[in-house]
Write a structure and sequence with these properties.
alpha/beta, five-stranded mixed β-sheet, three-stranded mixed β-sheet
């Protein structure tokens, strides 16, 4: 769990409720032995500057290169993408990314903070609608050949999957529904075929009690 900025605590709560062992990552050494990583929602430019400050870009890429599974939500999805549109002018209109996911992402595709909203979404492979919480959310405008669209809103891709990559424009961590976190853990297990299963505790609740 990348824990330099953003909603990492909310992700951690959901993943631990599903039985996963979670480590908070702030320094390169924290990635030793990690085989899956969540890049949470937050502010992508601030998060990028912290990745610079803590020298985390290459170590995160190394997690992927050795077979790890990465999931980016909102800001984290922006940082996974190959091309970013709408970067702040003070940064010269350019923003650094990991470049692992073959998509073009448009920042703030659905408006500013005051335009935040929540809608039910149909997600491929998930039974029943998923609540999509959109806060200064991006959208995926160009989809690479080997990238699968899992959910759309107003005909714009808002959840996609690539090779060992998952990206959501919205914030599943801000709801009580853990089905997308379970989907991520299932992908981790699939990628680890032939190895020991993902380490879990006994507790696995898909929905948080009200």
């Amino acid at each position: 769990m990348l824990a330099v900025q953003g909603a990492f605590r909310e992700h951690r709560r959901h993943l631990e409720a599903l039985g996963a062992l979670v480590r908070e990552v702030r320094l390169p050494a924290d990635l030793d032995g990690v085989d899956a990583l969540v890049l949470p929602g937050g502010e992508s430019t601030a998060m990028g500057r912290l990745l610079d400050a803590f020298d985390l870009w290459s170590p995160i890429r190394a997690v992927y290169d050795r077979g790890g599974v990465l999931w980016g939500t909102c800001a984290g999805a922006i940082l996974l993408s190959a091309e970013i549109l709408g970067a702040p002018p003070q940064d010269g209109g350019r923003q650094r990314s990991l470049g692992l996911l073959d998509v073009t992402v448009q920042r703030n595709a659905f408006g500013r903070q005051v335009d935040s909203f929540a809608v039910p979404l149909e997600v491929a492979g998930v039974d029943g609608p998923v609540e999509g919480v959109f806060i200064r959310a991006p959208a995926f405008d160009r989809i690479g050949e080997h990238v699968e669209v899992l959910a759309t809103h107003h005909d714009r891709a808002v959840m996609v999957r690539g090779a060992r990559l998952l990206a959501t424009a919205f914030h599943p961590e801000l709801t009580r529904d853990r089905r997308l976190h379970a989907l991520f853990l299932q992908q981790v297990e699939t990628e680890r075929q032939g190895h020991e299963p993902v380490r879990r505790s006994g507790r696995q609740n898909i929905h948080e009690p009200v």
